[in-house]
Amino acid sequence: MNSLGKYALIALLCFNISEAYNILVVFPMPAQSHRNLGDGVVRHLLNAGHEVTYITPYIKEGSNPKLRQIKMIYDFDALPKPHIKTIMNNEQDFNPSNFFNYTLGTHQAMIQNKEVQKLLRDPQQTFDVVVIEWLFSELYSGLSAVFGCPLIWVSSVDPHSAIMQLIDENLNPAYNPGLMSTVLPPYTFVQRVKELFMSAVTTVLKNYIFVRYERQAYEELYVPLIKMRGRPVPTYDEVKFNASLILGNSHVSLGQATRLPQNYKAVAGYHIDTNFKPLPENLKKLLDSAKNGVIYFSMGSNLSSKDMPEELKKSLLKVFGALKQTVLWKFEEVLDDLPKNVHIVQWAPQPAILSHPNCVLFITHGGLLSATEAVHFGKPIIGIPVFADQFLNVERAVKKGLGKRVDLSYSMADDLEVALKEILDSPRYMERAKELSMIFHDRPTPPGEELAHWVSHVIKTGGAPHLRSPALHTPFYQKMYLDLIAVIVVILIALRILVRRICNSCKTKKLVSDKKYN
Ligand SMILES: *[C@@H]1O[C@H](CO)[C@@H](O)[C@H](O)[C@H]1NC(C)=O
């Protein structure tokens, strides 16, 4: 190769490697787990050399010259939050329209933000792609119409109809649980009918009722901005169904092997920073010296254990005190009369604890991030679900053999004792956790790199139209061949009429000829 060619090749390689894009990332949900998902996306995009503008209710410490953060002010108390006592008394009500209103509230908070307004109103401001967490409403897709760039949704849970219909079609409810579902297939007849009913209700609510508010909001909030930039104004439905990709926080090791369109990419585990800080000295000593193993107990961040009834705390401590293992309990308050083997910490570096070889069990609320971390580090779980998708996550973990489920109740200490005994006495849970962990890690590319790859693929290919599913624009009646059925029915009716006419005329002719004879 001559030297010119060599330089050209090097230049080409450099160009490919260092191609930096300008990306808008929006994670509006004010909840710790959603924040972790957003921070993970931002981290991988920055590592890939891109410039990121990040709209979030939280601000990350430390500065990166390529990162610009915009803090959304939001009334945190408006968030539908679980409360231990209401759940224990079975008073939790689950209403999709609460979530819908809530999403509209977060959208309002984002759009009213001064800095966001500045971005939107500055005609010089452009982005190569917008990456937005999907939550019950597609109104945020208006951002892609304003900036005239491709749109990528991030889905925080396993694939479900409400999000898959945005790039493909509803999943078959006969074997795919809906977003609000709490049971896993295989379904009984009654469950299957219920799933179909829920799927139909959700579709009607979303696509015919809620969408009216969204269309109106799109007209008011986004259309003037699109016009200001001198771009042709697409309809809300054109924008809403125009996503290039879904990055899904799902993986078959935990979820189900659902068939999926080409522009759904399962990247669960990307949020886990594999360069986590080592354990602080006191925790390291505790874990290192626990000869019989450590049980890590954390109910996550959106459920306050302070609200736990007094008698429940006492009965839990009694169960833990009788174990030979060390129990590390992440709890927001100091408890008196702690048994010797129980340690309470207000803050816990979860990945560092789970990765420790002496950690033998994780008692968790079963949030998807915690469940994913359990599989990442190969630890069995006891799931105590309290909210949203946690019931389904724990059901899945139980079905996979990763652990047991215990329900929140006043007598849960007894159930917990039984579950603890079974998991700690039988090696099969730990073996299964290691096996699932191997499946989780056995991928051609780590999930964070895969995420960054697909984001830049979407930009490079102008929205990746080649990945889009033909099902998206095939009307329901065509998929179900309802038109063919209609044609067949019409032909059958016509035939019947024809046959009747012929018979009738035969009969009359016969009658006439009979009469002639008489
Ligand atoms: C849909 O997305 C593609 C690719 O991002 C873009 O080129 C096109 O303009 C978008 N269409 C509408 C109606 O927004």
- CATH fold field value of the largest domain: Rossmann fold
Tell me the overall shape.
globular
| Category by helix and strand content | alpha/beta
Q: Give the neighbour order of strands across the main sheet.
A: 3-2-1-4-5-6-7
**Quantity of strands, as a count:** 13
- Average pLDDT: 91
Bound molecules: 2-acetamido-2-deoxy-beta-D-glucopyranose
Instruction: Report the major sheet.
Output: 7 strands, parallel
List low-pLDDT spans.
none
Terminal Cα span: 109 Å
Number of domains: 3
Percent helix: 40-55%
**DSSP helix count?**
19
What is the beta-strand fraction?
5-15%
Descriptive account of the structure:
It is a single chain. This protein has 518 residues and is of the alpha/beta class. The protein contains 19 helices and 13 strands. The strands form 2 sheets. The chain has a 7-stranded parallel β-sheet with strand order 3-2-1-4-5-6-7. It has helices spanning 3-17, 32-47, 84-88, 96-112, 114-121, 142-147, 161-164, 189-228, 236-240, 281-288, 310-321, 350-354, 368-377, 390-399, 412-425, 428-441, 447-460, 476-479, 482-517, and strands at residues 22-26, 51-56, 67-71, 129-133, 151-155, 245-248, 264-266, 294-298, 326-330, 342-345, 359-364, 381-383, 403-405. 47% of the residues lie in helices and 11% in strands. Helix 13 (368-377) links the parallel strand 11 and strand 12.
